[in-house]
Amino acid sequence: MDTTSGRAEVPAIGNRQMLVDHVFEAILSLLLDDGLPTGSALNIDGLAKQFNVSSTPVREALARLEATGMIRREALRGYKVAPAPTASDIGALLVTRQVLEPAIARIACENVSPDLVADLEQFNTELDTSQLGGDTFAGYRAYWKADEMFHRRIAECTGNEFLLRAYNSVEGHIQRFRLLVHNDMSGEHTVREHQAIIAAFQANDAERARTAMSEHIDGIKSRSSNLAIFSDTEDAGRN
């Protein structure tokens, strides 16, 4: 399938990491808005030409996307669009989050600072004001980014390298989950649950922070449990 027609270039950016970020989001837009079917090839040279960049940021962006599970790298074949996650996949991801993130919240709360609370409030405000984003990735990007940064900021404040590595190992899959459900799940519940987490940090109550994060993950599980986009019938088509 041709994945290079009718797409805007990535703007010229001097900072290397920012360029990779822009290419990453440009490919996300391609995957989400164009609805490329499972198995579609993602040609590095073609994408580089399309976005008017070298192949290096494209390779780095594709490697990041592979970590989300949205694409797969096949030996001698390059990158291809991966199947959507099944209900079993999402269930396993949420179990992992339930084990990991409440503990992260508790430990981060023990290291709470005014800057952390201010950042969390800012991210939640951004999430609240952007929750009515459009049907395209560009319209949803602000919500996706604010939710991502809220959880990442907490993980970074644990001061525990091993916990952060554990979080990093699943963060890409969490990002993919957010992208898949954004048209089917209201952000109102998330904003309220985030506010409960913030209140626990403001009170410097580590156990309350753990409980609030646990309830947040439970809420996500409940809201996503009956979504039609996660169908185990897809398992039959997996290799």
Describe the structure concisely for a colleague.
This protein folds into 2 domains: 16-81, Winged helix-like DNA-binding domain superfamily/Winged helix DNA-binding domain (Arc Repressor Mutant, subunit A); 87-224, GntR ligand-binding domain-like (Four Helix Bundle (Hemerythrin (Met), subunit A), Up-down Bundle). Helices cover 66% and strands 4% of the residues.
Question: If you had to describe this structure to a student in words, what would you say it looks like?
Answer:
There is one protein chain. By secondary structure, the protein is mainly alpha-helical. It has two domains: 16-81, Orthogonal Bundle (Arc Repressor Mutant, subunit A), CATH 1.10.10.10; 87-224, Four Helix Bundle (Hemerythrin (Met), subunit A). The protein has nine helices and three strands, in the order αβααββαααααα. It has helices at residues 16-34, 44-51, 55-68, 87-110, 114-130, 137-156, 161-181, 188-202, 206-224; strands at residues 41-42, 71-74, 78-81. A three-stranded antiparallel beta sheet has the order 1-3-2. It is globular, with a radius of gyration of 18 Å. The two termini are 20 Å apart. The relative contact order is 0.13.
Helicity level, as a percent range? 55-70%
Strand percentage, roughly?
A: under 5%
Structural category: mainly alpha
Termini separation comes to 20 Å
CATH topology of the largest domain: Four Helix Bundle (Hemerythrin (Met), subunit A)
- Compute the number of helices: 9
H and E string:
HEHHEEHHHHHH
Major β-sheet, in short?
3 strands, antiparallel
What is the number of strand segments?
3
What's the domain count? Answer: 2
Poorly predicted ranges:
233-239
The order of strands across the largest sheet is 1-3-2
Cα-based radius of gyration, to the nearest Å = 18 Å
Please tell me the CATH architecture of the largest domain by its name: Up-down Bundle
Average of the residue pLDDT scores: 86
CATH class of the largest domain: Mainly Alpha
Query: Given the C-alpha coordinates, what overall shape results?
Result: globular
CATH superfamily of the largest domain: GntR ligand-binding domain-like
